[in-house]
Amino acid sequence: MTVTTTLDAVIDQACAAIAPTWPLDRFIAVNPFWELVDQPLPAVSARLAALSGARLLMPRAWFREEWRQGRLRDEDLEEAIAEAGAAVTVADLHARMDRDEPSLARRARVMDVADAMRDLAHEVSWRDFITHSSSQFCAAYFDDGQARLGPDREGGLYASWHRQVHRDHTPVLLLGFRAHLEMARELAPTARDMIGLALQALDVPTDERQAYLTGLLLDLNGWAAWCAYLRWTARLAGGVEDHLVDLLAIRIAWEWLLLRSDGGLVPAWRRAMAAWPGIDAAASHAQADDWLLQRAIEIAWQRAVCRQLPAGLHATAAPEVSVQAAFCIDVRSEVFRRALEAQPGVQTIGFAGFFGMPIEYAPTGSASARPQLPGLLAPRLRVTDAGVPADLAPRRTARLALDAAWKSLKTSALSSFAFVESLGLVFGGKLIADAFGRSGPALPERAGLSPAEHARRKPRLTDVAGGGVLGLEVWCFLVVVDDDV
Q1: Phi-psi region for residue 122, left (φ > 0), alpha (ψ -120 to 50) or beta?
Q2: Per-residue DSSP letters for 319-362?
Q3: Is 60 exceeded by the pLDDT of residue 287?
Q4: Measured between alpha carbons, how far is 386 from 140 in angstroms, rounded to an integer?
Q5: Can you tell me whether residue 461 is helix, strand or coil?
Q6: Is the pLDDT of residue 434 over 70?
Q7: Share in percent of the chain as helix, strand, coil (round to 5)
Q8: Rounded to the nearest 5°, which phi and psi values hold at 370?
């Protein structure tokens, strides 16, 4: 196996540990650590604690309160111990509950080593600066129609950042990093080359590289999860997407720049790397018996539920139902369902939101299609508007383009100051109507359409996603679905 192949494998393994997060318009609840489900939960918890300081367990003070309230008892502790075959006693677990959990160290990065040598009471920390600057750049790069100005996106996230970092004077002015601009010119031109260059310069042990890269992504886990979502959707469509690798390259580039900026960091950085195995072991040892407390509270909860189940099985439905509400089968709906069912005459039912047609909707005159299916899947069929004139699509496109140009005129840096003085009276009627609630922003579905044009639109299944004629197998599928209904 070549060095390049090994590096690619390590990068891919580090990126695979990051779970995607979906945008708000199609948000679904996702376990942020779902890519680690093949590993025992205590091991994942110890690993995350060492890499990022994350906790998957409740604090011991919470378990103490459960004990005081009588929801956790000795019999639950005994069953948890017996189930695990642990060499501890109930008294040992009581003693553990009475002490707060220790503060655990996490694996240091180069920026942490650099911060240890700074006067953080009077100076900005490198951790805060790198997190803020990287997040700010990602916010500008991934902005979708909000800002009027944005970075040059040609070549991807890392290429865009690589062009911008050469001109960024902030590290010089804010942190006194005087060699920043000169050293930034030596950054590798591509993301994977940057990661390989940095790993070699940082002298990260081969068997620690995947964990180190994962920890760097966890430092920016929000943006890393967004990049993982872009990768997920691209792969559903059979494509390739490297924004997550680009983000990793940006993050490790700062490590490389910092280590090169001060030769005095090298010995401290080597000591920090040597401490990593001890930090991992401490995290695993500190949480070992806490997982027994967690298992005990699960046993206690299950026991209480099992006692209540027989009564629920014999409960009769309300004789008269005046309101019936359908909810997706989701734990987030339970609080609403319980509150509604506590009222007389209200019944709730569950519906699996993941069932439905694998479609996307392409409105008339739109250049993009909107998925109308669970986020874990890719659309196979496309629905478009029928019953409208053939020339409506170009007319709507022209109207939307005119609206965008008008908005740009109102908000641009040059015209915004003179806009009110020159054209303010034109909006007098709209201001009066808004004051009395007679107008408002057009809904996205109706933007660029008259009321008559909107009323004529009828959604119709027309082709497969991405374009193409519906095949016979699709029509057979639709007939079967219709027959089942």
Answers
A1: alpha
A2: S--SEEEEEES-HHHHHHHHHHHTSTTEEEEEE-TT-S--EEEE
A3: yes
A4: 37
A5: strand
A6: no
A7: 60, 5, 35
A8: -105, 125
Please state, rounded to an integer, the average pLDDT across all residues of the chain.
85
* pTM summary value: 0.81
**Cα gap 190→237, rounded to integer Å:** 25
pLDDT value, residue 452: 84
Distance CA 88, CA 85 (A): 9
Question: In the beta sheet, which residues pair with residue 348?
Answer: 325
**How far apart, in whole angstroms, are the C-alpha atoms of residue 465 and residue 371?**
10
Helix 3-16 × helix 243-261 angle, to 10°: 110
Residue 350, strand partner residues: 327
* Separation between Cα atoms, residue 257 and residue 111, nearest integer Å: 10
Amino acid 438: pLDDT: 56
- Residue 318's alpha-carbon distances to 5, 321, 343, 345, in angstroms, are 65, 7, 11, 7
More confident residue, 93 or 420: 93
Residue written as token pair 């997982």: 291
How far is residue 133's CA from residue 122's CA, in Å, rounded to a whole number?
19
Burial class (CB in 10 A: 0-12, 13-18, 19+), 158: buried
Between CA 262 and CA 203 the distance in angstroms is 16
Hey, what are 482's tokens? 């219709």
Residue 382 phi/psi, 5° resolution? Answer: -125, 135
Phi-psi group of 3: left, alpha or beta (phi > 0 → left; psi -120 to 50 → alpha; rest → beta): alpha
- CA separation for the pair 37, 16 (Å, rounded): 12
Residue with tokens 């009323």, as numbered in its chain:
455
Nearest-5° angle of CA 286, CA 291, CA 297? 140
Q: pLDDT value at position 484?
A: 41
Compute the distance between CA of residue 83 and CA of residue 283 in angstroms, rounded to an integer. Answer: 23
Reported as a pLDDT band with limits 50, 70 and 90, residue 365 is confident
Q: Residue 94: what pLDDT? A: 94
**Helix segments in 142-264, DSSP class H:** 157-165, 170-175, 180-184, 191-202, 209-219, 221-236, 243-261
Give the torsion sign (CA, 155, 157, 162, 166): positive
DSSP symbols for 375-386? TTS---EEEEEE
What band does 427 get if pLDDT is binned at 50, 70 and 90? Answer: low
Query: How far is Cα of residue 284 from the mean position of the Cα atoms in its chain?
Result: 27
Tokens of 372: 């109308």
238: left (phi over 0), alpha (psi -120 to 50) or beta: left
Q: Which two tokens stand for residue 322?
A: 């005046």
